[in-house]
Amino acid sequence: MTDGGPVTRSRSAWSDLVAVMDRLRSPGGCPWDAEQTHESLLRYAVEEVHEVVEAVESGDRDAMREELGDLLLQVVFHARLAQEHPDEPFDVEDVARGVVEKLVRRHPHVFGDAGAVEGADLHRQWDRIKREEKPARGALDGIPPSLPALARAQKVVSRLRRAGYPPPVADAVPDDADLGSRLLALVVEAEGRGVDAEGALRRTLRAVEADAREADPPGPIQDVD
């Protein structure tokens, strides 16, 4: 594939994807792909994640397949760039191998002899294995600061609860509390009920938008002097 020949059907689609990405990035490939860096691609990775979310929540199977492919492309693209690092190169096989090893290691009840584990015990086992992998890891380590605020708040509340720290009590927040405290109380309530706060708000907004468009299709935004 790196010689510029056509994609063959004799190989797996995964091999074809890796080969196509290699061709695009190699000399004589695509100028735009050749000038990209890990940093320049970040915006596209974020966009693709949101597009996958929209496809899943809308129930559009064709869009879901397409958007998952676009997200997979981002993984393959970053892995191809990583091959070029002068001191610490890795490729997509290393990425996949690392995921396989992590999944097997963190599921001893499936791949080992730990026996059946369910519910809270399953979470405790997962957390214990992660602590063994990274002994210095704190309860809140690894939560991306760039997560949307609702999603990040719910992640923090969940991590604290599982670590034994009592989360704020939703019904203990006074009516005159600041907006942030009231929002956090709703997140605590959502986490306690097993509801995804971000997803719940997206669904409600989607319904509001649909009603608004049906009632009065929006025109162009008018400039206000």
From TrEMBL:
SUPFAM superfamilies given in the database record: all-alpha NTP pyrophosphatases
GO terms, molecular function: nucleoside triphosphate diphosphatase activity
Pfam families, A to Z: MazG
Domain NTP pyrophosphohydrolase MazG-like: 36-111
Biological process per Gene Ontology, one example term: dTTP catabolic process
Alphabetical UniProt keywords: Hydrolase
NCBIfam families: mazG
Protein name: Nucleoside triphosphate hydrolase
